[in-house]
Batch of 2 targets.
Target 1
Amino acid sequence: MVTELFPVTLKGAETSRRGKRLVGPVDLSLDGQGLCVVLGPNGSGKTTLLRLMHGTARLTGGTVQWACDMDTARHHQAFVFQRPVVLRRTVEENLTYPLRLRGVDRKAAKAAAQDWAERVGLGQHLTRRAMVLSGGEQQKLAIARALITNPALVFLDEPTASLDGRAMREIEAILLQAKADGTRLILSTHDMGQARRIADEVVFILGGQVHETGPAKMFFDTPKTPEARAFLKGDIVE
Amino acid sequence: MRHAFWLVVTFDAELAEIALRSLRVTLTALVIACLIALPLAALLAVRRFRWRRATIALLNALMGLPPVVVGLIVYIFLSRSGPFGALGLLFTPTAMIVAQVIIIVPLIASIAHQSLRELWAEYHDLLISMNVTQMQKMRTLIWDARRALLTAALAGFGRGIGEVGAIMIVGGNIDNATRVLTTAIALETGKGEFALALALGFVLIALALGVNLAIHWIGQTERDSRW
Ligand SMILES: Nc1ncnc2c1ncn2[C@@H]1O[C@H](COP(=O)(O)OP(=O)(O)OP(=O)(O)O)[C@@H](O)[C@H]1O
Ligand SMILES: [Mg+2]
């Protein structure tokens, strides 16, 4: 499945609103393995870059090219939003929703929902309405709903930004497990500690420009650009 | 007054017949109106097409349309010399249903559109990201907003059951055929038969309240099983 999608190549990709360029031009190429962290301070364009790749932000210049067409690509992707979107349904119905859309029968969908709810620690809450879950629980639900269709790639937009330390580590563990199961992850964060903990690969973004891309170890040990060095030293704060 | 109560509690046959006809006409109109208005409202919420704004403006304008005028227009269309005259529908319950559908569709569609649009703002990103088809979007929105839509339907029912001008014109208030609660009240009041008019009024209120409570109860039980 992974081979259908990757590599993804951005060439001069940019998005503008009312003549103001928000992100780009970005040149970037990613292959199908590991956990890639898009790192940058608030307002640097992380959300917009993820949406550009996913095909839900308007591309006003350049190209975003998957190994297949954009619609097919999106079919094999899932997106977890910075502010979790939960359906006004029960936890179980939230989890079965993407499966039912794909024609999975009710019984199999329910079994998968039970399984995933337990994996993210929501096993006790299956029949509760998702709207009444806490912020952290909603975020876990959104992540489980993204992973339940076994997508080739999951975008996660600051999935732990509003969570406490324990919830953050729980979610990181879920993500590392998903990675071990062969899911490609592209995660945005402004949290350097988190990037150090989980990144295989870093895309450093600042002011809508991608300044540096590379293996995480190289990025943290020997940053090449002055902007990256400043960010790592803490001179650029969110 | 006492006589009025008496008529109600003895379940006067004529009164029961009129009440049932009222209920049948308005419930039929309500079902048809919902089948038109809810998908329309959902479509207006999820899709940006050329005439969208114009349609919304038109619906809002139609909401304020006086029922008497609707009755007049339906009358002209159904009268023997009108375009649908050959169907012979004038002065039948069907004609009354047609008029009521026209009156309540804009009301239900407007209220429904309001809540579906709010829900769409909430769901937009997720459903776009999931590559959901237009049809699936509409179904998801209608299902998840069903409680608000029930309220919209209730408003439509209230407007329909209490309406007198249009159905008087297209139905003709014919005894044993098209006489319903509201037109009967108008007639009996005109004749000075206050007891009967009052009894009819009680039944009308009871019907409106009963349907409201029933629908409220449906929503309530569902909530209990969920929370
Ligand atoms: N729809 C929009 N209209 C106008 N400006 C926008 C829009 N979306 C984003 N922007 C601007 O583009 C820039 C990048 O936004 P983006 O949301 O991608 O940043 P981010 O890195 O995700 O920030 P954060 O860490 O706060 O989530 C910001 O300056 C933002 O104000
Ligand atoms: Mg963001």
Target 2
Amino acid sequence: MLSVTNLQVKYGNTEALHGISFTVNQGEIVTLIGANGAGKTTTLLSIARLGPPEGPKIASGDIVYKGQSLLNVPPHEIVTKMRMALAPEGRHIFGNLTVEENLKLATFARQDTEQIATDYQRVYDLFPRLVERRKQRSESLSGGEQQMLAVGRALMTGSDFIMLDEPSMGLAPLLMYDMFRALKELNSQGMTLLLIEQNARIALQFAHRGYVLDTGAIVASGDAKELMNNPEVKKAYLGG
Amino acid sequence: MLDTIIQQGFNALQLGSYYSLIALGYCLVYGVLLLINFAHGDIFMVGAYVAFFSATALLGQYGFIQPGIPGWVVLALTIPVTMLLTSGVGIFIERVAYKPLRLKGANRLYLVITALMMGIVLEYGNLAILGASRKSFPSLVPRVLIEVGGATVTSLKLAAIVVCFLVFGLLHWVVTRTKLGMAMRAVSYDKFAVPLMGIPLDIIIIFTFFLGSSMAGLAGLLYAMNFPVLDPFMGALVGWKAFIAAVVGGIGEIRGALVGGFLLAFLEVTVAATFSSELRDLISFSILLGILTWKPTGIFGKPRTTKI
Ligand SMILES: Nc1ncnc2c1ncn2[C@@H]1O[C@H](COP(=O)(O)OP(=O)(O)OP(=O)(O)O)[C@@H](O)[C@H]1O
Ligand SMILES: [Mg+2]
């Protein structure tokens, strides 16, 4: 469904991705793992088509989703036409808006009123804490609650392909398991997930397949279980 | 005595209406793009000229429309024409001058300098095209004198004040209650994440310039009707004052622009009435300086909370 081929990406003159290739099939959970600075965030920003000045520039290669190249699709159409959403690294929630307004904003371009109502329900079911804080300015949420809002917002775009950049960041262990349970639940409802995690162990327990990224290149890939038992991966990312 | 106070009160309200209408545009653009659009005062001037040409054309001065349309119809048509064409100029400047710099990730300083230069281009462009002779704005509707508590106010003056508050009410509704307004607030907080919500950033920016410039155009029209002599530099000083009013009110907060505009007008009128008009700007701006020293973010401004 998503296929990235020989993707070469730059920030200014420095190359951050040296021609990576990977695929994500419909209904899968795929994880990208790798150390700090490996290029995980860069990969997701490239797929979401967030370009310069803040984002990276694609130098060569292709990103094809459902048979269409995304290279000339503007970022807002990645959401509205391709129905792919990104919950970005660092959450980027709109702190000056309430929780409810943040969710509502994600429906900006949607017309399917009934489905929107169902989606609100789904977000509030997955993250009941957001219900109590509906009217609160979102910058007053705790880090973990902001993370839930960021994921909830991605769901409210009505996408069926969601990219998550370290969704467990800042979550206490208990909440982290809640978050992954919520994501698993979404996946069982048919949502395709592309997940980035610092915590490789959890990511591999949770995903179907994984790719290991090291300084801009993919160095290992395969079934999540396979990767977990791969001695190299074990040594480098799973603490021996 | 009382009638003088009421009279001066209306003068201040009228002046404040122009300041506020212009300050709102500074405020919106700053709020959304963190850009101080120094060309905005000259957009007010453009508004006055657009209104002039629209009104005189409709009155039949250039021949392609037969004379005879009643003044109030001309006015009713001139209002939307002025707002639309003036906002067109504002949006054009955004597309041509600011957007390319923004896409290159230029430092904000360069954008501000570009805005200053755009203002100068508008002033001297006008001078080059229309020459130095001043235009006098035609009278479209008869000036009715209205008696209020012993003082007399013209209907035009009252109209400027009423329009300012109506426009503010409408703007407040747009910003707080509509999805577009919500998107504007979102852009002001975090531009990066806005496309991720499926929102085209450009549309929000264009909409912001549309709102700001059409309000400046409306202010230009109202001003020209009350002070019917137009010249290419009429927007410069008013623009600076409106900008200062927006900062004192708390730039980025539309309530602040409204309050700042009226505060400045009341200071000016009070100083001119009690001391002399030569001391007007000196004393008023010293007081504003005092307010900023006491509260650097302006009256309604909140210090930006750092985002983690
Ligand atoms: N805005 C930027 N400008 C220049 N270089 C950047 C920028 N963002 C990232 N880089 C560089 O690109 C490389 C990949 O960064 P990226 O953020 O994709 O890593 P990551 O795998 O997400 O790391 P982390 O786990 O720390 O989030 C790094 O070397 C980084 O320094
Ligand atoms: Mg990252």
